[in-house]
Amino acid sequence: MEAVIESIVKDFFACRPDPSVLQRRVNEQMAAYEAKEQREKELMAKRSQIPDEEGFITVHNPHGAVFGKEGDSEETDEVGLKDFYRFQTRVTSKSKKDELRERFEEDKARLLALRKVL
Q: Residue 21: helix, strand or coil by DSSP?
């Protein structure tokens, strides 16, 4: 019995890399990632100091967030005014529930028809 357990443990550890090798690989990957991030940060800093064709300097968020994408303001306005009144939200949710119920009943009928065929 002990020989079986020992063989299982040996197989288990044989499938896994040595922790020191794994740590080295992780460190290499993290160093490469940090170098890439640093290059991108430096490139953004250089770009932010160069004026464009019209002579304006582009201002960037230092945290990397993007503001003012096309369509953002339109979407937020539409979502904000879509269900402005409370009764509109109730009506919308009720219609969604009714639609789901209808689809469920259709699927249920389709399944019954398939069972009859089989």
A: helix
